[in-house]
């Protein structure tokens, strides 16, 4: 599990960077260098996403391929909650998910043998 949101680091005078998240406008912070920006960014992102959960606000999926962005992950607990929410929102209309049981060892060896025989 590695959900990362794009953040833009904007240089500030006399030093440091302003950090803003492309998809989460309330998540802003700053830092003196890249490492501090990433640390502070992960912290503020986690706090704002937690607020989104508490207020039942819709949480967008992270944008991909944002030019010059640094991709930052919220903490693991928030990532798990995001995956859970997004999975619930993608359920079929009947509200059920069908999960097939894993194959037995015998089925695995049978398929592997068939693949070797035809391969």
Structure commentary:
With 119 residues, the protein is of the alpha+beta class. It has one domain (5-118): Double Stranded RNA Binding Domain. It has 3 helices and 4 strands; from the N terminus they run βββαβαα. The protein has helices at residues 34-54, 76-89, 105-118, and strands at 5-11, 17-21, 28-31, 70-72. The chain has a 4-stranded antiparallel β-sheet, with helices on one face. A hairpin with a 6-residue loop joins strand 2 (17-21) and strand 3. The two termini are 34 Å apart.
Coarse shape? globular
CATH topology: Double Stranded RNA Binding Domain
- CATH class category: Alpha Beta
For the termini, the CA-CA separation is 34 Å
- Beta-sheet strand percentage? 15-25%
Total helical segments: 3
Number of domains: 1
The residue ranges in which pLDDT falls below 50 over 5 or more consecutive positions are: 91-101
Largest sheet report = 4 strands, antiparallel
CATH architecture: 2-Layer Sandwich
Radius of gyration: 21 Å
Overall pLDDT = 83
Helix content: 40-55%
SS-derived structural category: alpha+beta
The strands making up the biggest β-sheet line up spatially as 3-2-1-4
The ordered string of helix (H) and strand (E) elements is EEEHEHH
Number of strands: 4
Oligomer: single chain
